[in-house]
């Protein structure tokens, strides 16, 4: 990697960090390019060398998060049985490492563009995993796997934002992940204390 490449990576990282901090401080609508450039300690011209506008920078922030998540999930067994909890645990660990970025996205800043991108990408990944597992185990889903994936992700996104914004000390990560896994394995009927169905 050349010195120029390293400089580019450092500048883009600084702009991402500045963008996140400024949005959390001012709100997305209140942030202008000059705020981001000043917080990153670069000139406006440097900003525009890398990004067309703040929307392009926001898309870049989300893209980096999604790329990192995909890399973490690459080793996950997609043909095993049931809910292992590994994808959920990776999501929570990643969010714990970058809480401000996740808060920005999960709060729906920027007309929800980042939240939609994260939710859609995570849902597509979940659907792929569920599909591969049902094929490998030769099971027949009782519910459309697209609906299952969307519901599963919606549940995680909601709980993840609650967890990130909980006052310190946060609920234990492993316990929260295990709760989500148990909900996936057993369902809400079991979770609320009922042992069997009745009319």
From TrEMBL:
What PROSITE patterns does this protein map onto?
HTH_TETR_2
Q: So which domain of life are we looking at?
A: Bacteria
Extract one GO molecular function annotation from the record: DNA binding
According to the UniProt record, which residues make up the DNA-binding region?
Answer: 32-51
Sorted alphabetically, the keyword list is: DNA-binding
Looking up Gene3D superfamilies in the UniProt record yields:
Tetracycline Repressor, domain 2
Domain HTH tetR-type: from-to ranges: 9-69
Q: Which Pfam families match?
A: TetR_N (PF00440)
According to UniProt, the name of this protein is AcrR family transcriptional regulator
Q: What does UniProt list as this organism's lineage?
A: Bacteria, Bacillati, Actinomycetota, Actinomycetes, Streptosporangiales
């Amino acid at each position: 990697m050349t010195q120029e490449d390293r400089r580019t990576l450092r500048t883009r990282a600084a702009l991402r960090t500045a963008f996140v901090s400024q949005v959390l401080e001012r709100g997305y609508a209140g942030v202008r390019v000059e705020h981001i450039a000043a917080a990153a300690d670069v000139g406006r011209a440097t900003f525009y060398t890398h990004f067309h506008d703040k929307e392009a920078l926001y898309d870049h922030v989300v893209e980096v998060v999604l790329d990192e998540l995909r890399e973490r999930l690459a080793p996950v067994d997609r043909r095993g049985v049931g809910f292992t909890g590994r994808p959920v645990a990776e999501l929570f660990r990643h969010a714990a490492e970058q809480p401000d970025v996740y808060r920005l996205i999960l709060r729906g800043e920027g007309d929800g563009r980042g939240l939609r991108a994260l939710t859609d990408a995570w849902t597509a990944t979940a659907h792929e995993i569920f599909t591969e597992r049902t094929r490998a185990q030769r099971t027949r889903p009782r519910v459309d796997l697209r609906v299952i994936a969307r519901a599963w992700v919606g549940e995680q996104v909601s709980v993840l934002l609650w967890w990130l914004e909980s006052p310190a000390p946060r609920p234990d990560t492993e316990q929260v992940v295990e709760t989500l896994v148990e909900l996936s394995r057993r369902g809400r009927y079991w979770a609320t204390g009922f042992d069997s169905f009745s009319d």
